[in-house]
Amino acid sequence: MTDYNFAYLDEQTKRMIRRAILKGLAIPGYQVPFASREMPMPYGWGTGGVQVSAAVLTPDDTFKVIDQGADDTTNAVSIRRFFQKTAGVKVTEATEEASVIQTRHRIPEQDLRDDQILVYQVPIPEPLRFLEPSEVETRKMHALEEYGLMHVKLYEDISQHGAIATAYAYPVKVEGRYVMDPSPIPKFDNPKLEMAGIQLFGAGREQRIYAIPPYTQVVSLDFDDYPFEASKADHACDLCGAEDSYLDELIVDDEGGRMFMCSDTDYCAGRRKQGHVGAQGVPYAEDAA
Amino acid sequence: MYVAVKGGERAIDNAHAWLAEERRGDSSVEELSVAQIREQLKLAVNRVMAEGSLYDPDLAALAIKQSRGDLIEAIFLIRAYRTTLPRFGGSNPIDTEDMVCDRRVSATFKDAPGGQVLGPTFDYTHRLLDFKLAADGELGKCPKAESSDAATPHIMSFLDREDLIQSEPTGPETPDDLTRTPLELPASRALRLQSLTRGDEGFILGMAYSTQRGYARNHAFVAELRIGTVAVEMDIPELGFAIDIGELTVTECETVNQFQGSKTQPPQFTRGYGLVFGMTERKAISMALVDRALRWKELGEDNVGAPAQDEEFVLYHSDNIQATGFLEHIKLPHYVDFQSELELIRKLRREAQSTLQEAAE
């Protein structure tokens, strides 16, 4: 495809996005407005992540895309193909081999290194949005570090349900300053937000970019007597036997029978390659796809 | 053993192939050409150009063909194409005073220089299905008038002469470009107008209608509605003067609204403004009404809390490409998030049930 620039966006636009990324890295957790472009995929389908990836990709990069932890979900396939076509970069499903990973809703199980970039697709970047619909108001609240409303919400959860009733997109505080939406990752992934890799968050429709630099303090909001708890299904993966990975629940028959398997397909395949076999798994064979 | 479905790639390819076949429909029916769409579905083409923010009837027609007539999908195609285009520079502002009008009506004066020209309007057609059209497309004769060189001054200029209409403050030389800078609030009027002109016709219409029904009512008279072609001029630095680079068809609507005044200021009419690519008069009138409603602050009116007065509400929700994308994304997989909710609700129910049980014992 020669009609478009490397990685689709023109260089001017990439420069604009890189400036926003740098500003985001300089002010961890702060939402930087940027002039989001219309992309050839719909808003809400990862246009923010795609623009951030386009701005950071170089021809030498190896690119991985996951959606719900999996490389083979349709939208992940579509975005991976987009960059294969427009940037001609190498692509991989192996977390280990990727230099740039675009994700929707998950952080890979395997720890990232400091030479890797994790790009998140973000639907609603504003953690206060469902408490206060007005952007004018929420920007003011961030500027004044006025997060009382959020704590009241968490408190009300506890008084109504006996626990904080947020299971994903669980709010965090970055470097003791900005309250940030980690995108709709399950709260199981929250502890992994403190990592060696660079984390970039792109919200295309909402025109915001934010970032967490490597080794930045990221604290999930909680109370002393109701501490944050990362949770997952109380099972092991039925394919690879992993007990430490986030699991998808599948309905396998019309009697409501369930099966659990790793949401991170690369992690699961890697373990099966190493010889781990779960309760319903079979020994790994070179692709049964 | 159950293995979750793999093979997203093949599924996508096959879906695309099926889509292409469906788009074509029954192949024993003649294929629609882009030129036919451009000429015979002109109002659809106009809407796609207006909301796609790109004036190119051929591309808009192609987009309509490709999208199987789904206009929002067609607008999306045009928007995505538009962002890839290089920018050579900006044209001079178009001068609608010099418009060659196909249609020009005023609801405020029975006659005015330039006259009332109905043009090709549906207005006084009886909405009866024309079964003859299903049989053949034979045209009757359309009488032609000599074109006139007489000027068609804006109706507003007559009110302006008497100082009856509030004058507009001149803004900065080049206003911000909504497609190049992120929308931040409060937005300037120029940005609001840019947002309205590319906003969804249905949304803007609904907002405008709500003002007519009393949510921030400010009775609007259509001082003038004009549709026609205007020249686009651009300054060429090497030449030192402006040259014509093309021609646009646009629809312009100016409304006269009720007056404001104070102890120090005698009352004056206020105005709302709409300008949209192509022959798109429903949109242009709607735009003028919504523009007027959004001006409450600068005109010193009360905010009555009506949706059409809330610029954040209107501007953030008028774009159908943003709206449709976000709306439709909920069909993408969310099983990771749903899984975390499942665990949470099971846990909460377990705890609640044990508490209830304890209470019962």
Structural class, judged by helices and strands of chain B? alpha+beta
Given helix and strand content, the structural type of chain A is: alpha/beta
The pLDDT mean of chain A sits at 93
Largest interface: A-B, 66 and 51 residues
Give a structural overview.
The complex is a heterodimer of chains A (289) and B (361). Chain A has 289 residues and is an alpha/beta fold. Chain A has six helices and twelve strands. In chain A, the strands form three sheets. Chain A has a seven-stranded mixed beta sheet. In chain A, strands 7-6-10 form a three-stranded antiparallel beta sheet, with no helix packed on it. Chain A has a two-stranded antiparallel sheet with strand order 11-12. Chain B is of the alpha+beta class and 361 residues long. Chain B has three domains: 74 residues, no CATH class; 182 residues, no CATH class; 27 residues. Helix content of chain B is 41%, strand content 15%. Chain B has a four-stranded antiparallel beta sheet. The longest helix of chain B is centred in the last third of the chain and has 26 residues. The chains are: A alpha/beta (289), B alpha+beta (361). Chains A and B meet through helix 3 and strand 11 of A and helix 1, helix 5, helix 12 and helix 13 of B.
